[in-house]
UniProtKB/TrEMBL annotation:
<feature type="domain" description="RNA polymerase sigma factor 70 region 4 type 2">
    <location>
        <begin position="102"/>
        <end position="154"/>
    </location>
</feature>
<dbReference type="InterPro" id="IPR039425">
    <property type="entry name" value="RNA_pol_sigma-70-like"/>
</dbReference>
<dbReference type="InterPro" id="IPR014284">
    <property type="entry name" value="RNA_pol_sigma-70_dom"/>
</dbReference>
<dbReference type="Pfam" id="PF08281">
    <property type="entry name" value="Sigma70_r4_2"/>
</dbReference>
<keyword id="KW-0805">Transcription regulation</keyword>
<protein>
    <submittedName>
        <fullName>RNA polymerase sigma factor</fullName>
    </submittedName>
</protein>
<dbReference type="InterPro" id="IPR013325">
    <property type="entry name" value="RNA_pol_sigma_r2"/>
</dbReference>
<dbReference type="Pfam" id="PF22029">
    <property type="entry name" value="PhyR_sigma2"/>
</dbReference>
<keyword id="KW-0804">Transcription</keyword>
<dbReference type="InterPro" id="IPR053866">
    <property type="entry name" value="PhyR_sigma2"/>
</dbReference>
<dbReference type="InterPro" id="IPR013324">
    <property type="entry name" value="RNA_pol_sigma_r3/r4-like"/>
</dbReference>
<feature type="domain" description="PhyR sigma2">
    <location>
        <begin position="9"/>
        <end position="62"/>
    </location>
</feature>
<dbReference type="InterPro" id="IPR013249">
    <property type="entry name" value="RNA_pol_sigma70_r4_t2"/>
</dbReference>
<dbReference type="GO" id="GO:0006352">
    <property type="term" value="P:DNA-templated transcription initiation"/>
</dbReference>
<dbReference type="InterPro" id="IPR036388">
    <property type="entry name" value="WH-like_DNA-bd_sf"/>
</dbReference>
<dbReference type="GO" id="GO:0016987">
    <property type="term" value="F:sigma factor activity"/>
</dbReference>
<keyword id="KW-0731">Sigma factor</keyword>
Length: 172
């Protein structure tokens, strides 16, 4: 049992990163991770010894996220609060790389949750298409479509941001 718990604890940083990409709010993301870990520990017998708990934990988290979104939609509450400009970055970026990173993160947050989840699973977390489709509970073709559309949407958002950055207003 201790080996299983240690393996699960080792996945917490990845779970937090994925939860934050889904929810856009640090506190809500931490709550989702905690709910995921509680459910995983209650159902520890469902995990096969010898396998990495990563796929199992991400599946649990994704199902919890979907359940949470359904509750919010039924109640009519706001699902995610938009970040205010001052909240997104505490200090103005001094390097171009910092600005580009922030623009990418903002663009990723602007696309739909389904596309964002698919992109994060494959591009950031490193799951194969088959693993990600299994975790998200969608056919592989649907996952590939979401990734393709998400990438296209990201390109459009980032191209627009780059164009706005190059336009400078000069006052006389």
């Amino acid at each position: 049992m201790d080996e299983k718990k240690a393996a699960i604890l080792g996945e917490i940083p990845r779970l937090r990163r994925y939860a934050r990409s889904l929810l856009r709010d640090r506190d809500s993301a931490d709550d989702l991770v905690q709910d995921c870990l509680e459910r995983a520990l209650m159902r520890l017998d469902n995990w096969q010894t010898g396998e990495s708990p990563r796929r199992w934990l991400f599946t649990i988290m994704h199902h919890l996220f979907i359940d949470q979104m359904r509750k919010v939609n039924r109640r009519g509450e706001a699902a995610m609060l938009p970040l205010e400009a001052g909240e997104a970055v505490a200090q103005p970026a001094e390097q171009l790389d910092g600005i580009a990173s922030r623009e990418i993160i903002d663009a990723l947050q602007a696309i739909s949750p389904d596309r964002r989840a698919a992109l994060v699973m494959v591009a950031i977390e490193g799951f194969s298409y088959a693993e990600a489709a299994n975790i998200l509970g969608v056919p592989a073709g649907t996952l590939m479509s979401r990734i393709a559309r998400g990438r296209e949407e990201l390109r459009g958002l980032l191209d627009d941001t780059a164009r706005r950055r190059t336009i400078r207003i000069v006052e006389k």
